[in-house]
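User: Predict Stage 0 sporulation protein A homolog's structure from this.
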Amino acid sequence: MEQYRILIVDDHPIVREGLKLIFETEKSIIIEDEASNGAEALALVLAETNKFDLILLDISMPVMDGITFLEQLKDRGISINTMVLTTSDDADDIQAALQAGAKSVLLKDAARKEMIQTVLRTAKGESVLQPELQHILQAKRKLQQDSLLTPKELSVLGRIVKGSASKEIALDMGISERTVKAHLSSIYQKLDVGSRAEAVACAIVRKLVTY
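Assistant:
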């Protein structure tokens, strides 16, 4: 049976103890060592006597946080499977962890079975992102797309939601009908839709305009 050596990095002793209890019945998981912050973890990684298959770490820690630790590994060219286990469901934190090199991200309130499976998959080199966190990142991407609409595009979008035709919008805004169509084309692209009806539905669902 293949076994995986794990380094647990969390500033709360009770969390480290809790994780050890969760994994103690899983024979393929060996808790090799633990650290209370990124600086301690980095020292353990750099020590030639330590060989870890997976580093399980939190984001928010004193001295050196999880993101900085991951960046330190990347800067030093150290390749170790890393999994972030956090209470933060903030899209910026999740994205920062992934960009810094984390293979997997999981919330601390995940079920025991899901946590063990994610640890084992990540230790084997797989990347796992909890479905709830996937939805959070998708929502952020949609919000970023929405925020790319210019004031004039939002004005055009608001008018098509109210049922105005292109010619009517042109007269109302004091622009040419060709310009209205150009705005519509840009709106479709940014909202990832293919028609006026889809743009209207998207605007209503995402509450992009008042109507």
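The chain is about 55% helix and 15% strand.
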